[in-house]
Amino acid sequence: MSKQKIETRGRKPVSEISRLSKKQWTFVNLYCDKQGELTLREIAQEAGYAATSAHTRAYELLNPRLSPHVVKAIRERRAELAEKYGIDFGRHMRDLQRIRDTALNNGAYSAAVQAEFRRGQAANMYVTRSEVLHGSIDQMSKADVEKALNEVKKQLGQESTEKVIEGEVLDTRSDVLETVEERLFGPTSKH
Prior knowledge:
Strand content: under 5%
Strand order of the largest sheet: 1-2
Low-confidence stretches: 1-8
Number of strands: 2
Distance between the termini: 129 Å
Mean pLDDT: 80
Number of helices: 8
Shape: elongated
Largest sheet: 2 strands, antiparallel
Number of domains: 3
């Protein structure tokens, strides 16, 4: 059996180890740096591709079947940027300390205190408590509402001499109470 040469039309076959052209390198760097700011067409145009075919070139460069070497370069560049600009605990604490020190040197004490506070939060030196209450007064029974009101009054140092009847507040020392009781419960003999 003789080995036949496979004829490929158009482009040379590429793999992940193929070298990138200057335009491809420019595209990779622009894509990683300007993604979200520019469209793919604009990135390809800035990289030097013709405006009439920029959209197609961008698609081809990002297609792992057509340009695996470009896709690999993008993946490596993103990992490099993530390492360079990523956040880790040590870098975060160092940057906050630098901000604090600069603020102190400039007399910006409030900013220095905030930076130091944030360093303490990052180090879990502060406990942040939050309480989420579900429900409302509409869901409470009448007895629960009265109990809660009396607790608030006790905290404020006010002892109540009032009764709540059907949404009306009545002073127990007045004769009005007797009238309301007669209306609600009928006449009662007191003698």
